[in-house]
Write a structure and sequence with these properties.
Shape: elongated
Number of strands: 2
Oligomer: single chain
Number of helices: 36
Radius of gyration: 30 Å
Distance between the termini: 89 Å
Largest sheet: 2 strands, antiparallel
Strand content: under 5%
Length: 679
């Protein structure tokens, strides 16, 4: 026991050892999640074209209803979170769509966050052991598994880091010189924090609570110290009310559901106790937990809720009286989580009253600190062997629960099934997400089934109608597709997505005039989205308007340089526009530097079809250099050689390509034809 105590003390005293141990906990807890699939809103990385080019990052900050705030929804936007899009964008620029690297990136961010949490609590409490244990619990608790498993959730990790740094600025401002500098730094950090998520708006309350409880300031003095934060907060709230009306987005919805005050308290207690239960027993943690709205009575749970709040207040007051001000403040920020969920819980009452665990991640730090403080106090006052066993049991139990959680997060359908089993009321979004997964897998029968399931009751959803339209286009049932698009358009007539898909429907029907009309409408509603531009370019290409098509393809590549298929189409247009021969040569030089055998082969085939035989041969050979096992390049190169009457060379190339595929039939047929032509 003495050896273990000395080891722990040595680790905590040495900053490098502490950092390495925390890093070890991160990887030990989440190593089985590294190969997990993309999930749900990970489309912010996989399908977001604005993040492909750093020159377009500024677009995330443009507060325009139909462009960034709201994307393609006619109603007013419910959020303005530029950093929620920018942090995944940075990750994409570093690792593209390599999901293993993206998840390790999230793990490293979590580690940095844990280091800051360790320093933060130590700075406040001067207790390294409690602070270190708090950071460990933060890492391993499955309630925070979202921060790693959900690739686009790294913004919440960044948010916690920024919130803590803002608090440290104001803590330093209160006790050090150059207070104006600390104030400016804190205000700037708070601005960036507010750009992460709306839950950051409560940070001034935590800081003013810290100044009153820990620093023993009067309310007036604390308010004066934090004045800059309140000014920023007021500006953000006014801005949000302009773009997302609180009455429309929440209050009217609550009123329409007939939820009175007592029912409101009853159901709020239910969702908050769910979160508390998951902190204590981490089984069944889900992305969103929903419960039925209570409309006509006050449950016993409500009374227990009020009693519990009163008890926590008494405990905090007890800490305060014993001059343990940090513990009192930790209880304060944890209890403040009730205020954080007061309105968001009722955002969509038709699906039930909800809570999303990431709303109150920062508040959970108060709970983790109090738990660490309790365990360390128990260690000092009780049998050290027993308490050490208890601490280790808690740590390993949480890590094991996190591993189970990682497993369920590993596959979209597996997680959605797990999600539906661990909520109190089924929500349409789960069926919708299942439908999306099946649609991505090209299982359109199951996709259609779950889309219809998501429309239970009197619900209407333009996204469902839109996707059902796409399913029917795939079946070539164009009239039925048109009916679904009409329904979607009736709900959301200013959607760039819907207008693009209607344009696509007319394109498939070869009605290029109407296809062009709807593409232009889509571009009008969202000038930054590339899909209508790609479709409109295809329309112009079919109309043999290659100049206009090339211009649109150039715009698309400027937005998203990773659009390799568009690059091939652009080269095709250059080859067909009079006077563009030099431009085509210059662009071919750019394409020759790509490291994709598939793209190089496709460019070679285009050049061969267009009569640029020497250039085509050059691209085929480059493709073989990039990937000698890419069998398709041997097939295409052999065809070109055969067309040049170089049958022996063609047969030799095809024989080489046979080594890299199990499907020999097509190669053998080509070889047979070449031998016959050779005679």
């Amino acid at each position: 026991m003495i050896f273990i105590q000395n080891l722990v003390s040595a680790i905590i005293r040495n900053k490098i050892y502490s950092a390495l141990v925390l890093l070890g906990f991160v990887f030990a807890t989440y190593f089985n999640s590294i190969h997990n699939e993309f999930l749900i809103d990970d489309t912010l990385i996989t399908d977001n074209y604005q993040i492909r080019n750093v020159q377009n990052f500024y677009l995330q900050f443009i507060p325009d209803i139909n462009k960034n705030l709201n994307l393609d929804d006619r109603s007013r936007a419910v959020y303005y979170r530029p950093l929620a899009h920018l942090t995944p964008a940075v990750a994409y620029q570093l690792f593209h769509l390599n999901k293993e690297s993206l998840r390790i990136f999230n793990m490293v961010l979590l580690w940095l966050c844990a280091l800051i949490i360790f320093y933060f609590w130590f700075y406040l409490s001067k207790n390294k052991v409690v602070s270190f244990l708090t950071a460990i619990i933060f890492i391993i608790h499955p309630i925070n598994g979202l921060l790693v498993n959900y690739l686009t959730a790294n913004v919440y990790t960044v948010q916690i880091i920024l919130m803590i740094l803002t608090m440290l600025c104001f803590a330093n401002k209160d006790e050090k010189s150059n207070t104006w500098l600390w104030h400016i730094c804190g205000v700037i950090l708070f601005i960036f924090t507010c750009l992460c998520h709306e839950t950051s708006y409560f940070l001034p309350f935590y800081i003013i609570g810290f100044l009153i409880i820990v620093r023993r300031k009067s309310f007036g003095s604390a308010f004066k110290i934090t004045l800059g934060l309140w000014i920023v907060l007021s500006i953000f709230i006014l801005f949000r009310f302009f773009y997302a009306d609180l009455k429309i987005s929440v209050l009217d919805k609550v009123a329409n559901q007939g939820i009175g005050f007592l029912s409101y308290v009853a159901v709020l207690s239910k969702v908050w106790f769910w979160y508390l239960s998951k902190l204590c027993n981490p089984q069944g943690i889900v992305l969103i937990w929903n419960t039925r709205a209570v409309t006509n009575y006050l449950e016993l749970r409500s009374l227990l809720f009020i009693i519990f709040i009163f008890a926590v207040v008494l405990i905090c007051f007890g800490f305060y009286k014993r001059k343990n001000f940090i513990a009192a403040w930790a209880g304060f920020i944890f209890l403040f989580s009730i205020c954080v969920i007061l309105l968001p819980a009722f955002y969509n009452p038709i699906d039930g009253v909800m809570i999303e665990p990431h709303w109150i991640i920062f508040n959970s730090l108060g709970f983790f600190f109090l738990l660490a403080l309790f365990l360390c106090g128990l260690f000092e006052k009780s049998n050290k062997y027993v308490v050490s066993g208890l601490i280790l049991t808690i740590i390993f139990s949480l890590m094991w629960a996190a591993h189970i959680n990682n497993y369920f997060w590993g596959d979209p359908l597996r997680y959605l099934d797990y999600w539906s089993q661990n909520i109190d009321k089924n929500i349409a979004s789960i069926d919708f997400y299942k439908a999306l997964v099946y649609q991505d897998k090209n299982d359109i029968e199951n996709a259609e089934k779950f889309y219809f399931a998501s429309l239970h009751g009197s619900r209407v959803d333009w996204q469902v109608y839109n996707n059902l339209g796409l399913i029917n286009i795939k079946r070539n049932e164009f009239d039925k597709a048109g009916e679904f698009f009409e329904k979607a358009n009736a709900v959301n007539p200013q959607s760039s997505i819907i207008n693009t898909n209607i344009g696509y429907l007319y394109f498939k029907k070869n009605d290029l005039i109407k296809a062009e009309k709807y593409c232009l409408e889509a571009i009008h509603f969202n000038p930054f989205w590339i899909q209508p531009k790609i479709l409109l370019a295809q329309v112009y290409y079919n109309e043999k308007n290659f100049f206009e098509a090339a211009s649109l393809y150039e715009v698309v590549i400027d937005v998203d340089p990773s659009q390799d298929k568009v690059k091939i189409n652009l080269l095709d247009c250059y080859l067909r526009v009079d006077g563009y021969s030099q431009k085509a040569k210059s662009f071919m030089l750019q394409l020759s530097k790509l490291r994709s055998a598939d793209v190089l082969t496709s460019v070679g085939s285009l050049l061969a079809k267009s009569g640029y035989v020497v250039d085509a041969l050059d691209f085929y050979h480059k493709a073989i250099t990039v990937d000698p096992k890419f069998f398709r390049v041997y097939m295409e190169l052999g065809k070109l050689l055969g067309n040049m009457n170089r049958f022996d060379d063609a047969i030799k190339v095809w024989r080489e390509g046979e080594k890299f595929t199990n499907n020999l039939q097509e190669f053998e047929l080509l070889i047979k034809q070449a031998k016959e032509l050779k005679r």
